[in-house]
Amino acid sequence: MHESIQAVAAFDRFARFYDDDYRNYDDDIEAIAMLAEECGEPVLELGCGTGRVLLPLAAAGHRVTGVDISPALLARAAAKLNQQGLASGVQLVEADLRTFDLPQKEFAFAFCTSNTLMHFATAAEQLVVLRNAARHLRPGGRLLVDLFNPDLPRLFAVDGLMELADRWQDVQTGAEVLKWSVRTLDLAEQRQETLFIYEEIFVDGGAQRTACPFTLRFLWRSEAELMLQLAGLLVEEVWGDFEGAPYAGDSEHLVLIAVKPEA
Asked: What does pLDDT average to over the chain?
């Protein structure tokens, strides 16, 4: 419970930077939308954040349920849905991905993108999330899981370094925002402790820093496939990117698509 409270606090602090941080990233949207179209209704997103992927799906006419543990992220998603007139087709649920229990257990397609599964710090917790996702799928329903592909040279190269990862101007406050990133590797536990520091420099010369710490537990391909099998799913495809390229050792992503067997 203590870990969940810490996670909520970190994601709530992250919420006001989320949309700017992801402003240039949409690599996964087309592929997820294609799978949603193929699989049918309804659609479930595990860790929907502020609706980066959920909103385009809703705009395309899909009935989507988004689950997230952060009330601040969900509040931003709700505001954008209302602003775009899409709220009627979307259900937002504040819950832990390990324990959420929706009345609807017949989802045709579920997805967990942007390394969301990696925020659970042990293999046991990750398996619980996958089993809970599988429990909410109909027979024949599919689950997409998007992870980063562990690049050991890169993981070692950035270990302990403080990097300037991004910068932008906040259109509401006029502040210049610098995003600093510090990563610490624990190879034995397959964890990367990640600290994002958002430094805001305001027009009056004042400054403010917001620290958002996260634990990311990365998975190897065979481990991820076995975990999905233990969750009761059959792995159909493994991609190295969202163009559907076959997974390779130097792929940027590890994208797995699994199906719940027919009864």
From this structure: 95
